[in-house]
Structures are given as structure tokens and as C-alpha cells.
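Materials and Methods. Structural model of Ribose operon repressor. The 333-residue sequence of Ribose operon repressor from Vibrio ponticus was retrieved and submitted for structure prediction as follows.
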Amino acid sequence: MASMKDIAKLAGVSTSTVSHVINQSRYVSEEISERVNRAAQSLNYTPSALARSLKTNRTKTLGMLMTTSTNPFFGEVVKGVERCCYQKGYNLILCNTEGDHQRMKTSINTLLQKRVDGMILMCSSLEGERIDIFDKYPDVPVVVMDWGPILFASDKIQDNSLQGGYMAAKYLIDNGHTDIGCITGPLDRHQAQMRYEGYKKALLEANLHLNPDWIVESDFECEGGYEAFNRMYRKGPLPSAIFVSNDMMAMGVINAAHEKGLSIPQDFSIIGYDDIQIAKFMTPPLTTIHQPKYRLGQAAVETLLSKLEDKTRDVQVVQLEPALVERASVQTI
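The predicted structure was written out as C-alpha cells:
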């Protein structure tokens, strides 16, 4: 493989001049630059990323850890992370933790050994865990997405789930519903708890009763929504509307209702959360709370890179606001 010394010999210049041209580290005349670039091209020279990283102490690589889910929400966030990395000239290494603490620690070790410049964590099933290894690498910044309280220094990107849950329930109330149920995510997870708190806040403000038979905890997956609706159905009469805390569970609810011969929104209304891409193609198209998924991913990368540029700045919390998307699954009564 050709080296800078080979290029210098062919171009008739010094090795340091070749370095300045290739790394654009100092002005070199147009004529000499053209000569060097022509020589590099003829020798099929490829700059060594390893050598450059040793010199600059940067690998231009970020690591991202996430828990695999059938929920396309995560894929849409990762798309935002990948696109932003590409635009900023960074590579991305994506690791799946499978919700396992030991696997997460192993993945973090692997990423640190590969000398990533920073990490993004999107493993909310592990929120509240202390990750001691970060104490040993204070120069590697970390951004956490959608966790609750964290036990290590980190910037944080989050959706305003409390406001989103409130908006969902308030929309149902504004459409004349007074009997409103809720299928929550796992309530040991911060975002699920906040959406549920937003729902309760809206009902309490409207002086509406929270019927415990209409509140069912689930797992943010399609199957969980399906089972949660069946549990609610077995308890007696249904509410006129249900806030389902994410669109994947809403899909399971729609399927379970269809099996029982129930029509949405004629028999009961439903509002979801996330606004995943397939929400508008459900039957009926799902009214939901939009999470800015692409922007969440983009904000994570931008926050991480800003920390790389100024490692002395204070920890930041970036909160993105949800928005209502009206479709056809809520009936006005």
C-alpha cells in the first residue's frame, strides 16, 4: 500500500508537504497541491484512518446502544442518528443490548476499546442502573435518550411524555368523552409513567373518575396491547375512549377489537402515541401524539458533538415537544 513517502517521491516534494495537502492542515500552492493529489491518485493512496485517529485523538466514530424491539419507533430514531452522523462526517457503530445489563456492559467495553469518540444510549429498560465504567473514561461523552433519573454524568434527550399524555386525554375530553380508559406502558419506565401521569392530570382537571377497571398496564408491544384490551374487556363495559400509550399497543387493541366484532370509532374511540410511520395506514387511520423521532436522533448526535467540542460545559437536558395528529380513530360525542 502506498505511503506519503511514496507520494512525496513521485510528486517531487517533501513528506510534510504531502501531509499538509492531504490533511489540509496548512496552505500549499494550487500547483503543488494538484501535483500531490495527482501522485496520490496514480498510486491509489488511501489515508489511514487509524494513523489519523492516533494523531488527532479522534476516530470520527460514535457508538449507539439500544434494546431491540418490534416497535419501528426505534428504527425511525436510529435513522435520524445515522443520517446526522453521515452529514457530520462521522461513522456509527450500533450495538443491541437485548435488555440485558451484562450485555450492555460488554458492548460498552467493546466500543471503548474501538476508541469511539462518544456514545448514545437508548436502552430505557435498564434505566436507573449505575454504569461504573463511564467513571473510568471521563473524556468519552455520553448522551442518554428517554431514560428517567440517571446515576452517571450524561446529557439527556427526551420527549415531554407528561405533556403528551395530557394532550391525548385532553383531546378525548374535548371531543365529549367522559369515560376514558388507559393502557399504559411498563410503569417502572419513566416515559410510561409520565404518559400515565399526563392522562391522570387531564382527567382530574376535568373532574372525571379514574375507573381502575379501565386502566391496564402493558409492555409497549403489539401483543401487549392485544392482551391488555382483552383484560379490560373481561372486566365489564368498555369506556367510550381509550388512550393507548404507544401506537404498537394501539395496533394490538384494534386487532383484538376486530376479533370481537367491535368497530372503531363507532363502538369506542382510541388515541395512540409516537406517530410511527404505519399509524396512518391502520384501519381506521390512528389519531395519535407525534414524537419527533428523527429530530430525537439528530438532537442526540448534535448534543454529543457539542460536548466533544467543549467538554467543560454543563450537562444539558434537551426536551422535544409532542404534537397532536388527528386522523379517524376518535369520534366526537
